[in-house]
Structure formats: C-alpha cells, structure tokens
Amino acid sequence: MEEAASGGTPSVWTGLAGGRRTRIRLGFASERGLPPHPGSITKNFWVAEAKVDVKRIRLHDLRHTYATTTPKTGVHVEVVQEQLGHATVAHTIDTYSFALLSLHEAAAQKVAALVDGPF
Fold this sequence. Notes:
By secondary structure, the protein is mainly alpha-helical. It is built from four helices and two strands. A two-stranded antiparallel sheet has the order 1-2. The longest helix has 28 residues, at 89-116.
C-alpha cells in the first residue's frame, strides 16, 4: 500500500470491488487505512460544521460546489470528471452544463481577441 507524504495515511487502498481487485485513490482513510464508512464522514462533517458559524448544508452539496466552481478556475472538465468518478466527460458536462455557461462566454472573448488582434 502506498503511503501519503504526510502522516503516513494510505493514499491508495487495494481491495475488491465488484468481484475484481482494484486500487482506489483515497482522499482520506479510516484509522486502519481503509476507506471510511460514509456515515462516519457525514458525522465528522457535521461536527466540524457545528464548530463554525456557517449555514448547515449537506455534505454532498460540497461535491456539487466543487464540480461547478473548479472548471471556472481553468481546470479542465476532464480532470473534474475523473475526480468525481463519472464514467464520461459527457456525463459531467451534461450534469453541470448550467454552471459552465460562463466558460462559453470566456472562450468567445478569447477567440474574438485573437481575431481582432494585431496581424
């Protein structure tokens, strides 16, 4: 098992998924180095959320926030697709196209600047 650079927490877990041996890159792990139970992630999120003065949201909402804001920083949508675990880029684009409209305008402005630029 690979070790993360800080603290020795495993960054890759090898186990069975769908009857096949697979390696899963973990964002974080349980104390035993295994993928944590989803319920414990939510519980820890609620505990952390209660310590600060913020509106309570669902943990899953952070996934949507990440998916809609990251492409606007210049990260390619294919990277977002891989990080979210979507099967295809098309699925990611179809799901979050409403948030990607501003990218169309930015692209059009870049092309216009190219066309209008010095020759």
